[in-house]
Amino acid sequence: MPFGNTHNNFKLNYKVEDEFPDLSKHNNHMAKVLSKELYGKIRDRQTPSGFTLDDVIQTGVDNPGHPFIMTVGCVAGDEESYEVFKDLFDPIISDRHGGYKPTDKHKTDLNFENLKGGDDLDPNYVLSSRVRTGRSIKGFTLPPHNSRGERRGIEKLSVEALTSLDGEFKGKYYPLKSMTDAEQDQLINDHFLFDKPVSPLLTCAGMARDWPDGRGIMHNDNKTFLVWVNEEDHLRVISMQKGGNMREVFKRFCVGLQKIEEIFKKHGHGFMWNEHLGYILTCPSNLGTGLRGGVHVKLPKLSTHPKFDEILNRLRLQKRGTGGVDTASVGGVFDISNADRLGSSEVSQVQLVVDGVKLMVEMEKKLEKGEAIDSMIPAQK
Amino acid sequence: MANSFTRMMSGRNTAVILASVGAGTLTSGYFLCDNTAAAERRKLYPPSADFPDLRKHNNCMAAALTPTIYGHLRDKTTSNNWTIDHCIQTGVDNPGHPFIKTVGMVAGDEESYELFAELFDPVIKDRHNGYDPRTMKHPTDLDASKITSGMFDERYVLSSRVRTGRSIRGLSLPPACSRSERREVERVCVTALSGLKGDLAGRYYSLREMSDREQQHLIDEHLLFDKPVSPLLTAAGMARDWPDARGIWHNNEKNFLIWINEEDHTRIISMEKGGNMKRVFERFCRGLKQVEHLIQERGWEFMWNERLGYILTCPSNLGTGLRAGVHVRLPMLSRDPRFKKILENLRLQKRGTGGVDSAATGDTVDISNLDRLGKSEVELVQLVVDGVNYLIECEKRLERGQDIKIPSPIPQFRK
Fold first, then answer.
1. How many residue contacts between A and B have a Cβ separation below 8 Å?
2. Which residues form the Phosphagen kinase N-terminal domain (chain B) (predicted)?
3. Exposure string over A257-281, b if 16+ CB within 10 A, otherwise e
4. Which residues from chain B sit within 8 angstroms of residue A149, using beta carbons?
């Protein structure tokens, strides 16, 4: 049976004051929104699969704050969570996604031909290009809540779908629990292998249960297309390659995703999506496109320019270290990606990355020549 | 205030009555929230779909759990909605431990041990050397006056300590408890402890409200416990909502100490430097009895039954929940190849001086009783007293160049 704090009815015997978490030292989106009144209003609800308010917020209660980023502090346990706990999720979504309203509609556009340019980012600066997203499979609960049986069901469906791909997508699935040492070493060397989550943001939400049961990695023979099964989301789909040809990366991403979606639909299990929130994923921060398109780019001069952060802001981009979200930059090389997920389409988000990175590389070249870049600073996108 | 208290009282009394009536009324079980979605899910995922993969596991739960047992238990829930999946999650997530064979399951409430007896009983038998909860009774004896030769040679024994745990009947255990239940445990205990007098009088330090100065003081005195990092505990859900309703109480002398809402509702510790184990145990028993009396005055009691003794979160601590031990210098004996066998026959275990997850290195080791269930507190402490005295004798003989003997093994349970 799905896991979770299922003794909700029993807890209702206790007063709201006694059950309300102490969030006085907390700094995450959930803590900003959840008042005692709101808690009292929605604590008796649960989704059809039994996910409760306490299940939603446990990770935010257990993790008061993060040194580099403002965390969300809550997760969904199934597709219905976003509906049943609207009163909590809507203000958090608005806060996290730039004022997105409950009545707003999200546009999905996975037509790679709509992307302009993107095949000419200077490889002397842009070391690698990558696009990732997540997908949830309809009819199953999400990683914080699912049972072993469900997780294995997701894996089985995924393996069938992924191993039936052909052409440039032809590849192999490696289940984590029966991986040989040689396979493991190879996947580590290729920077493909994901490990058991250690971040308490994830473990407190119950996503690491039963590890490594039902988890695995599929990648194509060319090592440019990669799918993680049952890590933080049902599926994480990644397209990547060395150099600056983001256009090619995005094309492979769109084509691959669409092929996979067709196969899942044929089995009666399409992806979770609706016209308000776009693609439904475990963490509210990934709603909409769930897309993070980015590059590893050398910007040693620009990154020390006093206006660097402002430039990124205006371009609607964010910086991370080359180890990912929880790291700092090394050697002037930054991971630059889109900041937005919800309220704009995949094509427009990747377009922002392509245009923004191109501009920043030109700025870097100017700074190398000792010239000023003030006239190049863009208006707010 | 009165209304909520009355409601609390009636809720607790119902739970107390249910718990004391015992197994029979509850083993028929409650089925999970009977909505159609849950029923559909049960059909779609029979127990075989959810049975954990334990092929690489080495803990007591993995050794005992069969698909048949899992099939019988999967859809049952205690009155707090605690399930077998909740009980075993820590054992599924933690295949093994480098130094000890772990139990691999926990109880969420007193009822767990009854409702899921089909799995708990063989695990208890495995962990407690053949103790059969179905046929045997556990003796409780907290009369410290019975201890003999309880004063160790202080050239060898550096410190003495006795600990146990107690659970408050009617409230869920740390893996399962809600925030309000946990806060209730804290209220019940702090109120009771404030009634202690004389050498036991002391004060409470809430983890959440502790000042930096207080925190440093408690760290310096080696009294402070921190948020559990061991995945054995975090995977069982015991670290949720940290540090809400957690705290430490200690008497003014700092030799009687109580942890609130760490791995159990309460952990009670009596300790002091030196080798006066008899005095440590005497204070332990006296303190325990007084605390029990103080909570009973307000209508509460400890979880206990005659099959399993004191009910605690981890099955390894059932019975007495008691670990009596010393830090003792045994430079020669600890390097002797016969050391392991001597300890085994004396029913003692060694740990590093950092506790259960540390390795024993150097001259000083932590020596304590192996057993918890099937022997009384007095018997176990006497066993430690006699055993440690024997170890010290061996060390002295080795110092003098004399030979030592492996003692014959101490018998298990009285029939």
1. 105
2. 43-129
3. bebbbebbeeeebebbbeebbbbbb
4. 44-45, 49-50
Predicted ipTM > 0.95: no
Cis previous bond, B46, omega within 30: no
Contact B366, B352 (CB under 8 A): yes
The answer to whether the beta carbons of residues B141 and B379 sit under 8 Å apart is yes
SS (H, E, C) A172-193: EEEEHHHCCHHHHHHHHHCCCC
Name the DSSP letter for residue A66. -
- Among partner residues A15, A61, A209, which is closest to B241 by beta-carbon distance? A61
Upper half-sphere CA count for residue B155 (Cβ side, 13 Å): 5
Asked if B33 lies within 8 A of A213 by C-beta distance, the reply is no
The tokens describing B165, both together, are 């745990």
Cα separation, A95 vs A102, whole angstroms: 12
| Binary contact (B50, A58; C-beta < 8 A) | no
Per-position pLDDT tens, chain B of length 415? 333 333 333 334 444 443 443 333 333 333 344 466 667 777 889 999 999 999 989 999 999 999 999 999 999 999 988 999 999 999 999 998 766 789 999 999 999 999 999 999 999 999 999 999 999 999 999 999 999 999 999 999 999 999 999 999 999 999 999 999 999 999 999 999 999 999 999 999 999 888 888 888 887 777 888 788 889 999 999 999 999 999 999 999 999 999 999 999 999 999 999 999 999 999 999 999 999 999 999 999 999 999 999 999 999 999 999 999 999 999 999 999 999 999 999 999 998 876 666 665 668 999 999 999 999 999 999 999 999 999 999 999 999 999 999 999 998 765 4
CA dist., res. A91 & res. A97, Å (int)? 10
Question: Which strands, in side-by-side order, build the sheet including B247-251?
Answer: B202-206, B247-251, B256-260, B266-273, B157-166, B323-329, B364-369, B348-351
Angle at A366 between CA A363 and CA A371, to 5 degrees: 125
Distance CA A131, CA A252 (A): 10
Side-chain-facing half-sphere of B169: CA atoms under 13 Å: 22
CA distance B286 to chain A (A): 33
Alpha-carbon gap, residue B118 to B382, rounded angstroms? 33
Rounded Cα gap, residues A271 and A292, in angstroms:
18
Interface of B with A in 30-69 (CB under 8 A): 32-33, 35, 37-38, 41-42, 44-45, 49-53, 56
**What pLDDT is stored for residue B70 in this prediction?**
97
Complete DSSP assignment for A192-225: --------HHHHTTTTTTTTTTT-EEEEETTS-E
Between chains, do A19 and B179 touch, taking CB under 8 Å as contact?
yes
At B21, which amino acid appears? Answer: V
Report whether A162 contacts A227 (CB < 8 A).
Answer: yes
Give the Cβ contact number of residue A167 at 10 Å: 9
Is B160 annotated in a binding site? The answer is: yes
* Chain B from 195 to 224: CB within 8 A of any A CB: 208
**Could you write out the three-class secondary structure of B134-189?**
CCCCCCCCCCHHHCCCCECCCCCEEEEEEEEEECECCCCCCCCCCHHHHHHHHHHH
Q: Confirm if B267 and B317 have CB atoms less than 8 A apart.
A: no
| CA gap A192, A172 in Å, rounded | 13
Within 10 Å of residue B4's Cβ, how many Cβ atoms? 12
The predicted-structure confidence for A327-370, as pLDDT tens digits, reads as follows 667 788 999 999 999 999 999 999 999 999 999 999 999 999 99
CB A197 within 8 A of CB A141: no
- Can you tell me which residue has the tokens 């509906």? A83
What's the pTM value of the predicted model, to 2 decimals? 0.88
